[in-house]
Amino acid sequence: MDSVASSTQRESGPRQGSEYAELPDIIKEAGLLRRRPVRYAVKGSLTLLAFTGAWVAFALLGDTWWQLFTAAFLAVACTQIAFLGHDAGHKQIFPRRRANAALAFTSRQSRAKRGFPGWMAKYQAFRWVEATLLATHIVGYLTAVFLVLSPGKALVFIAVHQGLWGLYMGCSFAPNHKGMLTLTEGHPLDFLREQVLTSHNVTGGRWVDFAFGGLNFQIEHHLFPGMPRPTLRRAQPLVQAFCVSRGINYSEGGLLVSYGQILRYLHEVGAPLRADDARKKGRAASQ
């Protein structure tokens, strides 16, 4: 969902004369689009240190059920690494465009690349290097787990690690758009309203920023996908005030409230199916 919306912005962009045109000036004046490579260097180093430390602890602990705590910690570390990858994909980290852009998504981008990046763009559909690295990762992961743990513990470790990792990722993305306005092709909304009305922010302190990897500021991220994560919190009140002054509904709520909204929405979506089941049971009972 996140990449689709940002792709829409890159391809169509804000409509001429839209109210959105005033917002970037406010954001730029506050210096919120300037890259923060040092902050990202520190964040990335600490994240990789935690990830490496978890595997060192895994090797030292040996064949014990205490490794399930290592699996849970690794799930958090892997998700944090994924958040950094997400930021890099949106070109939030490096000041220069060349350092941010590894793949080409349009013919114009591919023709602009030279040297090794140009060769990568030419043959990026046949990424044997990537396939090799993925295969190496899987083999290395399974080898390490089964070398240290007995088969039963290894299977449980993998289930806990991968399961919690997936759950953490899902819980991070779930509040962003579920239950919000769903648009159809040809809708009349301008870019500003399209992004704000279909997104939802999760409020909270710095721990929420860390846990969600900045995705709790989904409205600001969709309006400015290249904005560095460290400045999203400072941009939030500016964007909210801008929306309120123009009568645009700005959706936000606490973590539990946001998950409650998601569950109510999913319950409403499933209502017709439950009604069909009730009718079928009623007909079956009457026969």
From TrEMBL:
Residues 115-252 form the Fatty acid desaturase domain. Pfam families: FA_desaturase. The keyword Transmembrane applies. CDD domains: Delta6-FADS-like. The keyword Amino-acid biosynthesis does not apply. The chain crosses the membrane at residues 40-62, 68-88, 128-149. InterPro entries: FA_desaturase_dom (IPR005804), Fatty_acid_desaturase (IPR012171). Keywords: Membrane, Transmembrane, Transmembrane helix. This is Fatty acid desaturase. The lineage of its organism: Bacteria, Bacillati, Actinomycetota, Actinomycetes, Pseudonocardiales.
